[in-house]
Every structure is written in structure tokens, then in C-alpha cells.
Amino acid sequence: MKFDITEFLEKLPPIPLPGMRNADSIGIDIGSSSIKIVQLKGSPGKYQLVRWSVIPILGTMEGEKSEKAELTPEEKKAAATNLLRSYRGSGKGIPKNAVSSVSGSSVIVRYVKFQKLTRKELTKTIKVEAEPYIPFNIEEVYVGFYPVRDLVEDGKTKMETVLVAAKQDQVNQRTEILEGAGFKPTIIDVDAFALESVYDASFQGVPPEETVLIANIGFTQTNFVIIDKGLSVVVKDSLVAGNSINKAVVKNLGTDIRTAEKLKLANGLLLTPQEKEAAMNEGKKEAVAVSNAISSVAKDLTTEIKKLIEFYSMQGTERQVNRVIVSGGSSNVKNLIPHMAKELNLPVERLNPFTGISGTEGVPEEYHTTLGVAVGLAMRRAGDVK
Fold first, then answer.
1. Distances (CA, A) of 274 to 231, 278, 289, 318
2. In terms of Cα–Cα distance, which of 315, 4, 308, 305 is closest to 160?
3. Higher pLDDT, residue 149 or 132
4. Could you tell me whether strands 222-228 and 231-238 are parallel, antiparallel, or unpaired per DSSP bridges?
């Protein structure tokens, strides 16, 4: 069943499909190397984990085509559809309603100021109002919005608004994968906003005036989001990610991509010159080469974070990032977090999306950060405003 994705983008109140009740739904994060699935029940503060899964996508790191580092879009779509169809048929009680998300260069998030309009008025004119801010053909994107606050400039009342635009082909591909697997897509979110939902639930003790930057380090891209007073104020995606490290390891050691992934996770970073010297003295040249590869990519990553923080700081005299939180499967690289903390001169900690959620004892710790976006998607319900 086809529907207007505009109504389901994050920050635009999702409108239930005709005849659809606010039934149980399942969060499905379709990544480049794996599909992450989470179902929750309950309400904020009382969530309970019902089911979870991490399914490797054939052709990436597992399966008959495991020598391939990346799939073509067509291969990924077919593989994801087949894997999700098999998953849906593997057990009883798996909800039909699914929440998924998009990210990357095909998704644009902007904070803009429109003339004061009612939601109904802006809904009718959103494409005209949004076109100057969107670097795509306005007829090729789905557009969503969420008014943040009213303000007065030059004696005129305006409204600060979160504007979200996503290319139709990427969003449609998500819905086609889900529908092809037997699911009913009810909400298409944005990765960064799913992470915001997890942060809101996991860091309730953080002072409200504190500003954080979340770096979700995935396989082929990293999602950045700066959250100020509970609102995502800067959203950006980068191609510096886990597979960037794998390629650097391949370059340094001349190995294949699958072996590079294993070496990355087995060795991690050597933090000090003393550690590197000790490794060399012990004949662990491979560990040093892997560490050098990780270090070069980590430098690129922290450079991007510094630029993002600088950009945010330039928006106002009192704007500063107080801490960095990392998530994503590639954040599990040994010693990456202390390395980032040193380079950024900021507290850096790992996101645990299951904080405050019961029934998670069976989830291995190494999967916690991997499931961050999926947990955020599982928290979404049709009718949410934010």
C-alpha cells in the first residue's frame, strides 16, 4: 500500500493510515552491513524489550559473497528484503507495523525562519516556502516540518521551524523493502532524530542546559547530531566511518576487507608511543599497522567533529558543546573513546540505548551501541509530534 511519506517524516506529526490503530510496531534500522531490529512495549520510563536482532546483510561481512566490502543499491535492496521476509516468518507475534529511517546526503535538515502561519497554512505552502533551503529539485523530495518557537524580527512575528527534506527515491526504497518483506511502514524517521529519542530516554540526569554531540559511527557513514535543550539543532552525516578504517587496514597490510574488519576489532588503537614501542619490541608489527590505520581515520573523524562544534559555536556567544556521546557498531573499536576524548579535550562516553529499559540482560554489551537507532525507532508511535 502506497502513502504520502511527507506525513511520516520525523518532526511532522505522523497521521495514522486509514483503519490503522496505534498498534504495536517494530523498529527496523536498515544499515549498510546489517539490519538492526528492536521491539519495545510500555511507555517512556517503563519500556520493556520484547525482541531484538542484528542480521548481517549478505555480501558485506557474512555469507557467500563475504569478500565484497559493499553492495550495490540493487543488491542491498534485494538482500534486505529477503532477510526481513525470512525474519518476519521466523517467529510468532512479530508486529506488522514497522518504523524505519533514512540518512545520508539524500536527507536535509535545516532550521529556518518562516513568516508566522498556522500549521494548516504552512502545510499547504510548505514546498514553496522550503524550496530556497533545499539543494534538490523540490518535486523530487518529501518535505516535513515542525515549528519550534515564535520570535520577533524587525517588528514581524516569525516562527523558527525544523525543515526536513528527503529524496523520494531513498524513502521509497525503504518502504518498498519493508512492504516486500511483509511489513507495513507507518513512520519514516531520520537516523539523527531516532538518536535524539534514545538520548532523551537514556540521559535524563544530564543538566538541561548541557549541549551534547552524538556521533553514531556506522559501517559506511557517521551520523552527527548536536542536541541543545532537548532539540536537535545541527544534523550532519559523514562518509568517515567503520569501513574507512577497514580500507586503511587493507592499504597498510595488503589484506582483504573481511580480514581487515577482524583485525580492526581484535587490535584496536595503541594510545601512547610507549605502547607502540612495546608492541614493536614484542614483534607485533601487525598490531602497530592496524593502530596506525585506525588513528588516521580517527583523526579525520575528530576533525569533522571539531568543525561541527566550531560551526555551532559561531551561532551564538553562549553556544558550546559540553560532551560527546558515541554510538554505532564501529564505536566498539578498542581505545577509540579515550583517543577521541584526548583529541577533542571533551568528555566522551558510549551511548547505552537500553538504559532504563527492562528485559535487556540477554543483549551482549558489544551490541548495545549497534542497536541505538533501532531502539529510537522502536520508541516511535503513530501520532507522535516529535
1. 42, 6, 15, 39
2. 315
3. 132
4. antiparallel
Summarize the confidence of residues 193-204 as an average pLDDT. 89
CATH for 370: 3.30.420.40
Q: How many angstroms separate the CA atoms of 109 and 115, rounded?
A: 19
| Count of domains observed in the chain | 2
**Which pLDDT band, with edges at 50, 70 and 90, does 58 fall under?**
low
| Model confidence at 99: pLDDT above 90 | yes
- What are the tens digits of pLDDT across the range 236-259? 999 999 999 999 999 999 999 889
CB 269 within 8 A of CB 251: no
In a domain, 155, yes or no: no
Q: Rounded CA gap, 80 and 56, in Å? A: 9
Alpha-helical (H) ranges within the chain are 73-88, 119-130, 168-180, 191-202, 242-253, 257-267, 273-281, 285-313, 336-344, 372-378
Answer yes or no: are the C-beta atoms of 161 and 142 closer than 8 Å.
no
- If asked whether residues 181 and 35 sit together in one domain, one would say yes
> Which strands make up the sheet holding 107-115, listed edge to edge?
107-115, 156-167, 141-153
Total-model pTM: 0.88
For the segment 267-295, what is each residue's pLDDT rounded down to a tens digit?
999 999 999 999 898 999 999 999 999 99
The answer to whether residues 322 and 302 belong to one domain is yes
Q: What phi, psi does 140 have (nearest 5°)?
A: -110, 10
Q: For residue 59, give the 3-state DSSP assignment.
A: coil
Cβ–Cβ under 8 Å, residues 57 and 79 = yes
Q: How high is the pLDDT of residue 1?
A: 29
